[in-house]
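[step 3/7] fold_predict: job queued, chain A
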Amino acid sequence: MHLYVVKGQLATTLARHIDRIGHIRLADSPARRERDTGEINDNVLFAHLGWLGWMRCALATTELRAA
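[step 4/7] structure written:
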């Protein structure tokens, strides 16, 4: 999410450095919620990158925020 907010061009930037990336930490933008609730289409992003590596989610689910 930070890369997306600060730099934009998420797919291009990740693809440029994919050989140096060990894992991807993700949260949707802008509210750091679960997948498919914001601006980042991570299914398309990871398919574009061919990413099969580790992912770490850094988010608060809607259920947690409501509690």
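[step 5/7] annotate
The radius of gyration is 12 Å.
Residues 43 and 50 are 10 Å apart (CA to CA).
exit 0
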